[in-house]
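Title: Comparing notes on inverse folding

I've been comparing how different people in this forum approach sequence design from structure. To keep things fair, I'm posting one structure and asking everyone to reply with a full sequence. Here's the target:
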């Protein structure tokens, strides 16, 4: 059997692509979504429970808690009275966590990750084919 020359594989062509950081987007969405659902649920249930009760300021507080990110911060303007400490803590914690979640989403979308990907490659080399020799070709497309 004759010896066949061995050809070196040609390195595949590559290109760089920029992709969003999906991990940051996912963590931000979970943080924002979970804290917003809790504060909106609290605001909705409390607003229903105080219909006809409490002050107009309390109702404004509960109404604003249903808006994501800005709602908890606006609701701080409506907090007053003897039970205001718990409401302030809830609004501050919810507002802080929602803001962090939104910041992570924005950061994940705008701060791109650069990756090198293969465009495609075709490799050709001599090789055995049945009882004789032939050309083998394979590729990535």
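Reply #1:
Here's my take.
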């Amino acid at each position: 059997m004759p010896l066949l020359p061995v050809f070196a594989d040609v390195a595949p062509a590559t290109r760089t692509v920029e992709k969003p950081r999906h991990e940051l987007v996912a963590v931000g969405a979970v943080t924002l979504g979970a804290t917003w659902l809790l504060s909106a649920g609290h605001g909705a249930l409390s607003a229903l429970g105080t219909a006809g009760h409490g002050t107009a300021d309390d109702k404004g507080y509960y109404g604003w808690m249903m808006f994501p990110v800005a709602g908890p911060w606006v609701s701080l303007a409506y907090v007053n009275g003897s039970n205001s400490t718990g409401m302030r803590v809830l609004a501050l914690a919810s507002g802080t966590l929602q803001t962090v979640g939104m910041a992570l989403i924005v950061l994940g979308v705008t701060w791109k990750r650069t990756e090198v990907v293969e465009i495609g490659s075709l490799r050709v080399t001599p090789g055995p084919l049945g009882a004789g020799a032939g050309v083998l070709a394979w590729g990535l497309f």
